[in-house]
């Protein structure tokens, strides 16, 4: 029996997470879901976006499965996603984007894993105004040798463990000579320890252009926090949209699994949200807890349903009659 902290989240969160739990339970793996709250729904219920009970549960389980959280702009509360990643030192954010046989996009052979540094960079939360009139603002980026080294190590080790050929570091060391310069220096040092894996460097803006024009040259990509945030939405766009891309937040002794996308308030409550991303995140979570065979069955079932293109949400097929619930049920039913 595994115990997992379940945070359904905001907006489309509860609807897609219910489908993901349905699919994971259908594997037969025994999981005790410990429901906890975070984000806007927690704020409305308990007056805080991150109640102590949620932390107590995650402290104990060390594995969390989380729906998207709405970050209310301008309330003074920091992003709970960022807070959780920093609190549990979930330093590696792994976001695989792969073409699907059944989804027509510009390319049919994209297979890119973004490995995003998840604890520092521009998202450390060091922001303030420099003038009483609040007309000058400053946001600081923090890059440390130790965090850079462990994320680049993670990317190379991931490449080695998953039979991948190449790691590309994306950076802006030409302009941000200190913070990005340090990250690039460390990446070069680590790369030298992995002679079996090809190493490439790209300046982030050019990397975006190359990724759109010739995605095949990218395999594993390692980069700092904000660039990884942006690049992972870009890779989502290459393979069919945000509804498809899972993300694992991995630390030394805790891990949190979620989708790359947010709470999509524009489609919440309409049975339109694609549950694929969180279901695929669930598969990553099953692998993480040692249930690799169940994880493979989930991935196969998702592939079958997505590639058939019938019981899928409208982002994948505009003529569909199915929604979130029908897609989740079809995936659960497709499991052998
Ligand atoms: P978003 O990712 O929620 O939505 C962007 C666009 O993609 C929307 O048009 C939405 O309808 C579509 N979309 C997203 N997920 C989809 C799905 N599963 N199926 C079909 N279409 C989908 O980004 P947005 O609108 O910028 O952010 C909304 C809220 O989510 C904000 O409060 C933001 O802070 C939060 N957010 C939370 C994240 C997390 O909890 N990990 C990650 C990203 C954003
Ligand atoms: Mg993002």
UniProtKB/TrEMBL annotation:
Residues 3-331 form the Isopropylmalate dehydrogenase-like domain. Keywords: Oxidoreductase. GO terms for biological process: isocitrate metabolic process; tricarboxylic acid cycle. The keyword Oxidoreductase applies. It is an enzyme of class 1 (oxidoreductase). Coiled coil: none annotated. GO terms for molecular function: isocitrate dehydrogenase (NAD+) activity; magnesium ion binding; NAD binding. SMART domains: Iso_dh. The keyword Nucleus does not apply. InterPro entries: IsoCit/isopropylmalate_DH_CS, IsoPropMal-DH-like_dom. Its EC number is 1.1.1.41. Belongs to the isocitrate and isopropylmalate dehydrogenases family. This is Isocitrate dehydrogenase. It comes from Methylovulum psychrotolerans. The lineage of its organism: Bacteria, Pseudomonadati, Pseudomonadota, Gammaproteobacteria, Methylococcales.
């Amino acid at each position: 029996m595994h115990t997992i902290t379940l945070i359904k989240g905001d907006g489309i969160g509860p609807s897609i997470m219910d489908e993901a739990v349905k699919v994971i339970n259908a594997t037969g793996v025994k999981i005790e879901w410990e429901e906890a709250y975070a984000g806007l729904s927690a704020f409305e219920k308990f007056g805080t976006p991150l109640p102590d009970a949620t932390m107590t549960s995650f402290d104990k389980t060390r594995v969390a499965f989380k729906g998207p959280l709405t970050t209310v702009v301008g309330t003074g509360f920091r992003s709970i996603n960022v807070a959780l990643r920093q609190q549990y030192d979930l330093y590696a954010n792994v976001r695989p984007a792969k073409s699907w046989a059944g989804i027509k996009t510009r390319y049919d052979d994209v297979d890119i894993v973004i490995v995003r540094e998840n604890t520092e960079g521009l998202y450390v939360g060091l922001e303030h105004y420099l003038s009483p009139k609040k007309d000058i603002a400053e946001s600081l980026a923090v890059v440390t040798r130790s965090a850079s080294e462990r994320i680049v190590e993670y990317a190379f080790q991931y490449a080695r463990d998953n039979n991948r050929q190449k790691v590309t570091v994306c950076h802006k060391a030409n302009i941000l000579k200190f913070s990005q310069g340090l990250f690039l220096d460390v990446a070069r040092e680590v790369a030298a320890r992995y002679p079996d894996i090809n190493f490439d460097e790209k300046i982030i803006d050019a990397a975006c252009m190359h990724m759109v024009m010739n995605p095949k040259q990218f395999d594993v990509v390692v980069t700092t926090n904000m660039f990884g945030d942006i690049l992972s939405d870009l890779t989502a766009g290459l393979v069919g949209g945000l509804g498809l891309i899972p993300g694992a937040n991995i630390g030394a002794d805790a891990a949190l699994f979620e989708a790359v996308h947010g709470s999509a308030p524009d489609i919440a409550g309409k049975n339109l949200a694609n549950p694929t991303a969180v279901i695929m995140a669930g598969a990553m979570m099953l692998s993480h807890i040692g249930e690799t065979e169940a994880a493979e069955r989930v991935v196969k079932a998702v592939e079958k349903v997505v590639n058939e293109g019938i019981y899928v949400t409208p982002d994948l097929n505009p003529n569909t009659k199915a929604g979130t619930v029908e897609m989740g049920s079809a995936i659960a039913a497709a499991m052998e």
